[in-house]
C-alpha cells in the first residue's frame, strides 16, 4: 500500500499581501478536501477533482465561480484531468459550466477524445448532466472590478486592451489557475487543473491549462500542474518537461526547479508548477513573486510559496 497524498496550487503571480491569507487558506482547505477523499479510499482522480472543485467554488481563485474576465467581460473556462496511465480529458473555452473539471472528467471517461472546445463541449455537458448556469452567475464582484480597472487603465495609457495580457505578468495580478496532483493508496496518480485564463484574454483564447503537456501532465513517474502565464508555459511544454525529468530520475524538487529554470532561460516565462512523484514526494517552484501552495498539513507562512523542500 502507498501512503496517499495530495498537493494543490491556487495560482502564481504578484499575489498582494492583503489577499495572500485567502490564497493560503483556500489552497490548504482544497488539499484537505482532496485528502479526505483519499482517506476514505477514493481514487487519485477523485481526490484531485475534489480539491479542484473546491477551488472552482471559491471566488478567490481564478477557476469556475470567480474566474477572470476576457476582453468582452465574459468568463470562458478551461480544464484538464489526466491519470498515470496517460488517459486524459480536457475542455477549453466553455461558457456557463459551473465545474469545468467535471466536464473534463466526462471527456476522459465517456468520449474517445482528449480535448473538446466551445459549443461542442457545452453540448456534451448538457447531454451528460453536468451542471450548467447562467454565465453571469460565475462573475464575482472583485473580478468585475478588476476587469473594469484594467480596461480603464489601458485606455488611460493608450494601450490596446488586447495587448495587455501579453505584458510581463510578474507585476500583474496572479493568473491563479488552480490544480491538484494526487497519489492514492493503490499507487495510482492523477492531476486536475482548471482556470478562467488570463484577464482580458481574447474570446476563444486557450492557455496552457487544457493543453496536455503544457499546463498538466501525469504518467507512471508522477504528476505536475502549472500556473502562471499560459503562453510561456505552452512554448516550452512546461508540464511535460518537468515530467520527463522525473522519468529520467530527477527528484520532485529537481524537476520543479529545472523546469522553471528552463522556462526562464528559454522564453523568460513567468509561471510556476507543483510536482508529485510516484513515491509521494511533493515540490513546487515558480518564477513569479509567489505561488499559493496547499497541502493537507498547514504550511507556515514563511514556507508557503517560498520553501519547497518537504519530507514526505
Ligand atoms: N495558466 C493559465 C492561463 O494562462 O490560461
Describe, in plain words, how this protein is organized in 3D.
The chain has 312 residues and is α+β, with helices and mostly antiparallel strands. It has a single domain (5-304), classed as (Glycosyl)asparaginase (Glutamine Phosphoribosylpyrophosphate, subunit 1, domain 1, 4-Layer Sandwich), CATH 3.60.20.30. Helix content is 34%, strand content 21%. The protein contains 8 helices and 11 strands. It has helices spanning 17-39, 44-57, 100-110, 118-127, 141-156, 230-236, 238-247, 252-267; strands at 5-13, 77-83, 88-94, 115-117, 178-183, 189-195, 216-219, 222-228, 271-277, 282-286, 290-294. A 7-stranded mixed sheet has the order 4-3-2-6-5-1-11. Strand 7 and strand 8 form a beta hairpin. Helix 1 (17-39) runs antiparallel to helix 2 and helix 6 crosses helix 8. The protein is globular, with a radius of gyration of 17 Å. It starts with a strand and ends in an 18-residue tail after the last strand. Residues 166-171 have low confidence and may be disordered. Residues 175, 177, 195, 197-198, 207-209, 227-230 line the site of glycine.
